[in-house]
Amino acid sequence: MDKQDKAVVVFSGGQDSTTCLFWALKKYKHVEVVTFDYNQRHQEEIGVAKEIANDLGVKHHILDMSLLNQLAPNALTRDDIEVKEGEDGELPSTFVPGRNLLFLSFATILAKQIDAKHIITGVCETDFSGYPDCRDVFIKSLNVTLNLSMDDEFVVHTPLMWLDKAETWELADQLNAFDYVREHTLTCYNGVRGDGCGECPACKLRQNGLEQYLEKRTEEGSH
User: Fold this and answer.
1) Could you point out which of 86, 164, 187, 203 has its C-alpha 20 to 30 Å from the C-alpha of 93?
2) pLDDT per residue over 22-55, tens digit each?
3) Do residues 34 and 59 lie in contact, with contact meaning Cβ atoms separated by under 8 Å?
């Protein structure tokens, strides 16, 4: 199979990466997913990712990235650090320095091994909580660096880069994956699947987007 037809999706089992997986399955003949185990607060995330990959019939790679936990203690990797939104221009306590740099680098090394040209990630500049490694300029810069480092021509795709959460729900709906994404994914920082705990920053963002999209869908349906 031509490498042009093969893709690797950076996959956490959350709303964004699962929407990206459905997007990739529509575009490419062969798709594999990679999940990174960095001792995140909820090992449930790994379990959810496994289940979805199995459900959708894609090969699932799980890579040990526990070094990230040692280097960058934060609220996603330590139970004793509170999940807090950024205040006074500071980054949220959930920011993991270098995470997307490392994840995309390893995903591209994997792509090289399986002879895939495309790497897909669900990063987004619209709802990115101020994370510097979710910006379009960073992804484009890293794409150039990865190609130079391996003397190859990979393409890093970011289908959600300019979408807000409501538009991400809309994309899932267009991909006929709305109900699946809503029921099976894990976005919640407290490890609750589906609509989540409703209290943490990730759940609030997801729920607000869902409500906005459902309102829009109802309005369009009534016309």
Assistant:
1) 164
2) 999 999 999 999 999 987 755 788 999 999 999 9
3) no
From residue 173, alpha-carbon distances to 20, 88, 223 in Å are 12, 36, 19
Measure the CA dihedral 99/105/107/109, to 10°: -150
Q: Give the helix, strand, coil percentages of the chain, each rounded to 5.
A: 50, 10, 40
Q: How confident is the model over 138-177, as pLDDT tens digits?
A: 999 999 999 999 999 999 999 999 999 999 999 999 999 9
Distance CA 168, CA 213 (A): 9
Taking the C-alpha atoms of residue 217 and residue 211, their distance in angstroms, rounded to an integer, is 10
DSSP-assigned letter for residue 76 = T
- Closest among 38, 3, 189, 204 to 108, alpha carbons compared: 3
**In the structure encoding, which two tokens stand for residue 22, read together?**
């459905």
The yes-or-no verdict on residue 20 having pLDDT over 70 is yes
